[in-house]
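Service request form, structural biology core

Requester: graduate student, group of Dr. S.
Request type: structure prediction, single chain
Budget code: on file
Notes: please return the result as structure tokens.

Sequence provided:
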Amino acid sequence: MAAHSSAKARPAGIQRVLGHMRREWSAYLFLGPSLLQFVVLLVFPVVFSFYLSFHEWNILEPEKPFVGLENYARLLGDRRVHQAILNTLYYTVVSVPATLFCGLLVALLLNNQIRGRGMFRALYYLPGITSAVAVAIVWKWIFNGDFGLINYYLLKIGVISEPIRWLTDPVMAMPSVIVVSIWAGVGGTMIIYLAGLQAIPDELYDAARVDGAGPIRTLFSITIPLLGPATFFLTITSIIGAFQQFGLPYLLTSGGPVGRTTTIAYYLYTSAFRNFEMGYAAAMSYVLFAMIFVFTILHMRFAYRDINY
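Core staff response, request fulfilled:
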């Protein structure tokens, strides 16, 4: 009787969903492993890290007291966090537009009928799928202040009079990391732009030529506006990736010199796995999430209205 009354108390929508699930139980059975993986590897860590952010959670200490918002308040006064945020913003503001510009330029060149086009596309895309460790090893050798290729050729042609310490100079370290980031990211950007270029109807270019439009006018009146959706997508994903940049600062400079290449993601790593301050690192991860969320919303607010799908 109680079960019958509780069933009646359920809204009709819930009863409909439960009935559908009973009829299609085999589909949920097949989805079960993926759903379990999603919950264990994504949902649980997100919820548990939020729980950690309110505790002084040192993995070496048996006591893990609740501290409320103390970790978040500590972030406000931590100068290293402020420097890491500024470094991350600097990296994002420079690397994202430069990567998009270079990727678009390469896509425009390789969208033409040239000999060996397929080979060039593969070569430009190769850095994007190469291991970050291999990329860092090669570029550390290129940037080496004593026997690196860049210094060797710059000295040989007389551009500089003494070697530049690319990865250990406080001024040059971040630009050097950005150069490697652009080199590695151009290939993926090129692929997206190539897909967008090939989706533009040839009739538009034919009409533009009939009207007397030259290559520059065609580029700015047809190509770039119609690549708006691709640019919008690449900007959003590139900003998110830039805010999460960890590998290159870790492998190339270890966050140095004097913290000039320490990004917020790298400082989060050192707080968690070197200082073992899991609660503090968890609070930092939610600050990072908030930064990414705000930048994404702002960009969508001002850019999405100009995009017509």
